[in-house]
């Protein structure tokens, strides 16, 4: 019996040891594909559209920029917004007064490049107002100290079928890890949840906290006295909502043994197409949406409200 136990132990050790082997697979070269990053909003800031090319999976450098394109967005009344090339791969439209676009209007993106035309459509949705941002504390225990966290308060628009991308910033820095992509459909997580017209549910309201650990894997407080947090709600189309969730799934990979049980790698969707069905391929996304925002500084422990 002891021999059987020892054998099973050695077998298990061999299996787990083999999981630590480093494998460098030889991947086939693929033709670079145009990547369009076109997320337009109505903030009174310069609007940017980025054009790059895909690159090999293991090539750890910035994607190559695509220069020399003609980039425009046209609204349903025929008004044309021309995006000028500011630097290779970056195309910019600068507002002369108000921000871009009109809520409820439909917009068409057109990119002319190397004799081909790529197009996409989007409708500018509305974003609900953020009423307030509060702070609360999760009291510490033997595993971590007190965790001071932020929570934003906003109510979904009355009619159903609205989708949002919630962005948040700590001390002016956008928190944009794959795990920090926050989406909402109405006031819940997904379509069909019957959460329209109410306050965003707590897991979404409280997702604006940048959790991290120290060198001993002990949780650090997302915010400390003196920190600031700002939250933006970006209106997105349902297709953009699906795209963002696909990006989150494909980029937020657990790695190691847990990867065996994760969603298989797959290409994410796109709403951009080549007007020539036989022409070169394109990936990326185009969305036009209104934005609401609010910020607050964690001035003192008096700002903390009961959880």
Compile the SSE list and pairings:
Blueprint: H1 2-18, E1 34-41, E2 47-53, E3 70-75, E4 80-87, E5 90-93, E6 106-113, E7 116-123, E8 130-138, E9 147-154, E10 163-170, E11 173-174, E12 182-185, H2 202-205, E13 212-213, E14 219-220, E15 228-236, H3 238-251, E16 273-274, E17 282-289, E18 291-297
Parallel strand pairs: 1-17
Antiparallel strand pairs: 1-2, 2-5, 3-4, 3-6, 4-5, 6-7, 7-16, 8-9, 10-11, 10-12, 10-15, 13-14, 15-18
Structural class by secondary-structure content: mainly beta
Low-confidence stretches: 4-11
Distance between the termini: 55 Å
Helix fraction bin: 10-25%
Task: Explain the overall architecture.
It is a single chain. The termini are far apart. The chain contains 3 helices and 18 strands. It has helices at residues 2-18, 202-205, 238-251; strands at residues 34-41, 47-53, 70-75, 80-87, 90-93, 106-113, 116-123, 130-138, 147-154, 163-170, 173-174, 182-185, 212-213, 219-220, 228-236, 273-274, 282-289, 291-297. The longest helix has 17 residues, at 2-18. Mean pLDDT is 90; it is low at 4-11. It is mostly beta strands.
Put the structure in a nutshell:
With 307 residues, the protein is mainly β.
């Amino acid at each position: 019996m002891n021999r059987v136990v020892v054998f099973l132990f050695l077998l298990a050790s061999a299996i787990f040891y083999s999981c630590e082997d480093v494998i460098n697979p030889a991947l086939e070269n693929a033709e670079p594909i145009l990547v369009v990053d076109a997320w337009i909003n109505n903030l009174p800031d310069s609007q940017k559209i980025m054009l790059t090319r895909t690159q090999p999976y293991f090539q750890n450098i910035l994607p190559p920029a695509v220069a020399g394109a003609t980039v425009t967005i046209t609204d349903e009344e025929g008004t044309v917004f021309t995006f000028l090339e500011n630097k290779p791969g970056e195309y910019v439209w600068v507002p002369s007064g108000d921000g871009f676009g009109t809520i409820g209007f439909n917009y068409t993106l057109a990119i002319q490049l190397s004799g081909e035309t790529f197009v996409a459509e989007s409708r500018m949705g509305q974003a609900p107002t953020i009423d307030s941002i509060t702070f609360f504390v999760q009291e510490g225990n033997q595993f971590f100290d007190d965790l001071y966290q932020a929570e934003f308060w906003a109510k979904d628009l009355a009619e159903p079928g609205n989708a949002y991308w919630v962005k948040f910033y700590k001390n002016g820095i956008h928190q944009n890890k794959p795990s920090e992509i926050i989406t909402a459909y109405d006031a819940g997580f997904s379509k069909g949840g019957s959460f329209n017209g109410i306050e965003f549910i707590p897991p979404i309201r409280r997702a604006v906290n940048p959790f991290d650990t120290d060198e001993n894997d002990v949780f650090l407080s997302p915010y400390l006295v003196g920190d600031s947090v700002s939250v933006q709600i970006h209106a997105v189309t349902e297709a953009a909502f699906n795209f963002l969730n696909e990006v989150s799934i494909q980029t937020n990979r657990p790695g190691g043994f847990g990867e065996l049980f994760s969603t298989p790698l797959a290409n994410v969707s796109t709403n951009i197409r080549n007007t020539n069905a036989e022409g070169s391929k394109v990936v990326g996304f185009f969305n036009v949406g209104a934005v609401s925002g609010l910020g607050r500084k964690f001035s003192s422990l008096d700002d903390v409200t009961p959880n």
